[in-house]
Amino acid sequence: MKSKTGANRERSFLSLVFSWGYERGRCKGNPCKGVRKFTEKPRDRYVEDWEYEAIYKNASPRLQAAMDVAWLCGAQKADILKLRRQDFREDGLYIEQSKTGVKQIKEWTPRLRQAIDKALAVESKHPTMFVFHNRSGTKLSAESLRDDWSKAWEKAITEYANLERFTFHDLKAKGVSDYDGPNKRAFSGHKTERQVASYDRKVKRSPSLDPSSKY
Hints:
The chain has helices at residues 4-23, 49-56, 61-73, 77-81, 110-120, 142-159, 170-178, 184-188, 193-199, and strands at residues 92-96, 103-107. By secondary structure, the chain is mainly alpha-helical. It folds into two domains: 1-41, no CATH class; 49-199, Intergrase catalytic core (hpI Integrase, Chain A). A two-stranded antiparallel ribbon has the order 1-2. The longest helix is centred in the N-terminal third of the chain and has 20 residues, at 4-23. It is globular. The protein starts with a helix and ends in a 16-residue tail after the last helix. 22% of the residues are buried.
């Protein structure tokens, strides 16, 4: 395991397993207790508009739709993939965030409607309730979306030599960073300003000193 983040996740998972076993008399203790986690550096990757477009133009229609929903709604991949037709409201798209439990209706915009229409237009042999679906009509899997993402990257990096890697999850952060409304926390669906700050990654502009203004 080379990734510190991955190692921390495995430690947490194993700790849960041993805790479950200890409570039921299946093991004598939890060997994960006392094992410190690696210090993780908060992710600060901001996806520039040109970078977004570089992947977008090389993406499949369903990936383009998913990218736009993630960006425009500040939504997680898991919450996008579980969207159903019943989540359409007259005034917007209903999204319940799996991490925070926050329920939101993301107001319709022309581009958001276009993204949803593009997702629904993906061919399906059977009627489906899922917005993002495969050809059999079942919910699109995270693995299938990951494959689409990898293919788009393979094409994009041949065209853009200076394109630095970013993840699909970074698109939620791009949405939060790009949102310029009065209440960023309401848009992001986070419960604390600290959580919002971790997703607000755009470098802030500030005035510089102008000595000439003194004379």
